[in-house]
Design goal:
Strand 21 and strand 22 form a beta hairpin. The protein is 8% helix and 57% strand. The protein has 3 domains: 1-98, Sandwich (Immunoglobulin-like), CATH 2.60.40.1120; 236-320 and 355-819, TonB-dependent receptor, beta-barrel domain (Maltoporin, Chain A); 321-353, no CATH class. Helix 6 packs antiparallel against helix 7. The protein has 820 residues and is mainly beta. The chain is globular and about 100 Å long. The strands form 7 sheets. The protein has a 22-stranded antiparallel barrel. Strands 9-14-15-12-13 form a 5-stranded mixed β-sheet.
């Protein structure tokens, strides 16, 4: 790590030595009015600036050579000017109003800009497409600062997830075109439900920390905004296919009409992904389609998006016990001796591969779900300074997961005993399905005012979620008089979520930009019915949150900037936090006080971003090991906890053929005065034992799944205009599985290397041919990215159950994409 830092510094000094000339100018519109905040970039370099309060821009210390300058501003056609730089040069731009308004305005209200006092990155579709050969979005984002991803099947296909700054997806606000994607009850985002959605994405912006106000769940670690593809003015068709290890096959077909009659445009995509998975039987069968149609003019956009994801995956949710990973035969035998595994499950474990073992063997142990999205957007530009954006949406999901359960008590399923001539049978094997049938619908809106030094937005949303949860027994070894698809539980959740926000960016002077943002959010959550353990979980909760944010951005020079910000975020508990908690202690809302500071430096061939953060939590919900009266684990509010760290990202261009990018995050993530709880099974077997859990105060401990070091490295060799070769490295430090800071319950650090070859051709018959080949984990690192642990005492002896999620060793993918 020290060597990389030194080399980065050496390259930086080298850039300074050879940088020689300045470029400056003004940006105006066709009416000769200055444009404040217009973007100017030097193409094929790392340099970009914004125009100041006088419409002026400037670049310093640019090496001599031939360049293309590109100026752009929302609502105007971009302009590109060629510059041969061998002296101090002035280049003035005149931008003309666009014949059609651009889709950028749809996400404008929830996006951070160049002078926003936030730590953020924006990933363009070109970058996503380089690696998009079937993996879920978490895999495609793996190089982003402070991000750690995991895949249940070990391949990045199927169930996958990511953490940012140690924060899981249930605490990350995710929106698609400004519409919330987080499930209203679980707060999660299930990327497997939208397979190959990256093929329909224009870009993804990740704001670390609280971020700007947006719609949906509270942001406690990051905000992720996805924007679907922009209008393409020329008709096109694409067909792509990729194949690789684990019998992975992806097929995608796309087509677009281009701009018809200068107003209408239509786009479509159809995708299928299949994979056997790295873990035994962890196969995936995924399908999706995307349809979009729009009317566009110089002042109005009306767009309708309809897309569906269908997934069927074999369950690989249990992970691999540590004793199986380590080939500990005595430890595996304890699973049988302590009745944790049946004889059949034990035999399956000891006869399996230690890194691909899967607990489940029932042939239809699947997760089956379909999610349908309907979105309609209306954007209207009343004047060149005022734009209104509104959307209505409906997300409908329905599906189940099916399980074989061994020796289940009929009473637990509200089934009668089976009485025969010789015996009364009160338990047996069965197959059950747990269903979720839900609707999420509502409206979002924003009104934006932009004039010279002021960019102000008022926006909000009103959404309702209705979720029906129920379970069916579809087969029983001893059915008795049970009905077909016997229903043993049903409950319903209704959640209303209203928010309104106002934000302003004020360019007070040429060197100072002020950002202020306030949001009010009201949530009420009504749960009624019985849960799968037959408990009555009827309850009602109401929350009112006020989330203010304030920041300053300083233009130190035209190639340097700095910011400071302070934000408050509030988050309501998720459904399981309420359902699993005991009656005497319901969970409280969590609050985050987020302090951020940053610095950035840009040259034509070097870029540095440095961010400092201190995230101070009040009443953060964490796992302590506590259980409720029926044995379910519960999340407990801890009074104080924090995350503090530094994020460093660099980008370097060497000799015009090598692009080198790095990111480092060094952090400390602590719970103040943590108390752990461990189950004592002797309580239920020995009347002399008085407590069903043992407790111990551990003082300050590390927050689980929060590595102190996360780093990435990417080197791209642009060999020719049509060939590039990339080497990608990701390092993740040690992670604790629970909050006790015990190294025995941790994930080892890992360093994974991938290599990628991209070829691009143009022919007379085919506009563009892209050929990709990728070797993942080419050093065959054995590593695990996620785990769970359950601890208990039996016969006054400490024991554990756990599950680790290994990722695939060396594996290959290759693909070709044809664009007509």
């Amino acid at each position: 790590m020290k060597r990389i830092t030194f080399l980065t510094f050496f390259i930086f000094l080298n850039s300074l030595i050879f940088a020689q000339y300045d470029i400056s100018g003004t940006i105006k519109d066709e009416d000769n009015e200055i444009l404040i905040g217009a973007n100017v970039i030097i193409e094929s370099t790392l340099t970009g600036v914004s125009s100041n309060t006088k419409g002026e821009y400037s670049f310093s210390n640019i090496k001599s050579g031939e360049y293309f300058l590109r100026a752009s501003f929302i609502g105007y056609e971009p302009q590109i000017i060629k510059v041969v730089l061998n002296e101090k040069t002035t280049v003035d731009f005149v931008l003309y109003k666009s014949a059609t308004i651009t889709e950028e305005v749809i996400v404008q209200a929830t996006r951070a800009g160049d002078k926003s006092p936030l730590a953020f990155t924006t990933i363009k579709k070109e970058e996503l497409n380089k690696e998009n050969m079937g993996q879920d979005i978490p895999t495609l984002l793996k190089l982003q600062p402070s991000l750690v991803m995991s895949s249940d099947a070990g391949t990045g296909i199927g169930y996958s997830q990511f953490w940012i700054r140690g924060t899981d997806i249930s605490r990350i606000n995710v929106t698609l075109n400004g519409i919330p994607m987080n499930d209203a009850e679980s707060h999660g985002v299930w990327w497997v439900d939208i397979p190959d959605f990256a093929s329909s994405v224009e870009d993804i912006q990740i704001q670390r920390g609280v971020g700007t106000s947006t719609n949906g769940a509270g942001a406690f670690g990051a905000t992720v905004n996805l924007q679907t593809s922009n209008t393409e003015k020329v008709a096109y068709a694409e067909i792509g296919s990729s194949y690789g290890s684990f019998n992975t096959l992806k097929t995608t077909v796309k087509a677009g009409s281009g701009l018809l009659n200068n107003h209408f445009v239509f786009d479509a995509r159809l995708s299928q992904i299949k994979s056997d998975g790295f873990i035994d039987r962890a196969w995936s069968d995924l399908k999706s389609y995307y349809l979009s149609g729009a009317y566009v003019s110089d002042k109005t956009i009306f767009r309708v998006n309809v897309f569906t994801g269908w997934e069927e995956t074999y369950q690989s949710w249990n992970g691999i016990p540590k004793v199986r990973l380590e080939n500990n035969e005595a430890g595996m035998k304890e699973y049988l001796d302590n009745w944790l595994y049946s004889e059949q499950e034990y035999d399956n474990m000891i006869n399996s591969n230690q890194r691909t073992y899967n607990l489940y063997t029932y042939d239809n142990q699947i997760d089956h779900y379909q999610q349908d999205y309907y979105q309609a957007f209306l954007v209207h530009k009343f004047t060149k300074n005022i734009t209104f954006n509104s959307a209505i949406h409906l997300t409908k999901g329905k599906g189940y997961y099916e399980e074989f359960k061994n020796d289940q008590s009929f009473e637990d399923y509200q089934m009668a005993d089976v009485i025969t001539e010789k015996d009364t049978i009160s338990s047996g094997n069965l197959i059950r399905r747990k269903w979720l049938d839900n609707y999420f619908y509502g409206v979002t809106y924003s009104l934006n005012y932009f004039y010279r030094k002021i960019n102000a937005t008022i926006g909000g949303a009103c959404n309702q979620y209705i979720g029906n949860h129920f379970g069916e027994v579809i087969w029983s070894q001893f059915a008795g008089n049970s009905e077909i698809r016997h229903e043993w539980y049903r409950n319903k959740g209704i959640k209303n979520d209203f928010n309104i926000y106002a934000k302003i960016n004020l360019q007070l002077t040429d060197w100072l930009n002020i950002f202020a943002d306030v949001q009010y959010r009201k949530i009420n959550h009504d749960i009624n019915g019985i849960d799968d353990d037959l408990r009555d979980i009827t309850q009602y909760h109401d929350f009112n949150f006020f989330n203010p944010k304030f920041g300053l951005y300083f233009d130190i020079e035209n190639n340097q900037g700095a910011f400071i910000s302070y934000s408050i975020g509030n988050r309501e508990p998720k459904r399981s936090d309420f359902v699993d908690a005991p009656e005497f202690r319901k969970p409280l809302a969590e609050t985050l006080f987020d302090y951020e500071a940053g610095y950035n430096f840009k040259l034509s061939d070097f870029k540095l971003d440095l961010n400092l953060f201190y995230m101070d939590y009040k009443n953060q919900l964490v796992m302590t090991g506590e259980i409720n009266d029926v044995g379910s684990p519960i999340m407990v509010n801890v009074p104080r906890s924090y995350r503090a760290g530094i994020e460093i990202s660099t980008s370097v261009n060497l000799f015009d053929i090598i692009d080198w990018g790095t990111s480092y995050t060094i952090s400390q993530n602590k719970i103040i005065n943590f108390t752990e709880y461990v189950d004592n099974w002797d309580y239920w077997e020995n009347p002399d034992v008085e407590e069903f859990q043992k407790t111990e105060s551990l003082g300050n401990t590390d927050i689980s799944f929060s590595p102190n070091i996360v780093a990435s490295n990417s080197i791209s060799f642009n060999i020719t205009d049509f060939m590039s070769f990339d080497i990608i490295t990701k390092y993740v430090g040690t992670q604790y599985i629970d909050n006790t800071s015990d190294i025995e319950r941790s994930l080892d650090s890992y360093l994974v290397n991938d290599a990628r070859l991209n070829l691009k051709f143009e022919t007379k018959l085919i506009d563009e041919i892209n050929i990709n080949f990728q070797i993942n984990n080419f050093l065959n690192e054995e590593y695990e990215t996620n785990a769970w642990v359950y601890r208990y005492y039996k016969d006054d002896t400490y024991k554990t159950m756990d599950g680790y999620f290994p990722q695939a060793g060396i594996n290959f993918m290759g693909g070709v994409n044809l664009r007509f």
